[in-house]
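User: Could you check the structure of this?
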Amino acid sequence: MAERKAGFGQTLDAVLWSFFGVRRSDAHERDMQSLNPLHVVVVGVLAAACFVALLIFVVHTVVTK
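Assistant: Sure, the predicted structure tokens are below.
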């Protein structure tokens, strides 16, 4: 089994590109070998929470004006 040595930046990059829906196949294969699945889940949940908080803030700002 290959060692997983991806850092926070590479994990965040992979998660954000997946939110956008665009990923090259070679980058996907490289990520599958180096990313820790637990880190991907944690970063994904945090990114989703930030996105939802941003949407709530925007809606609240628009509705109160």
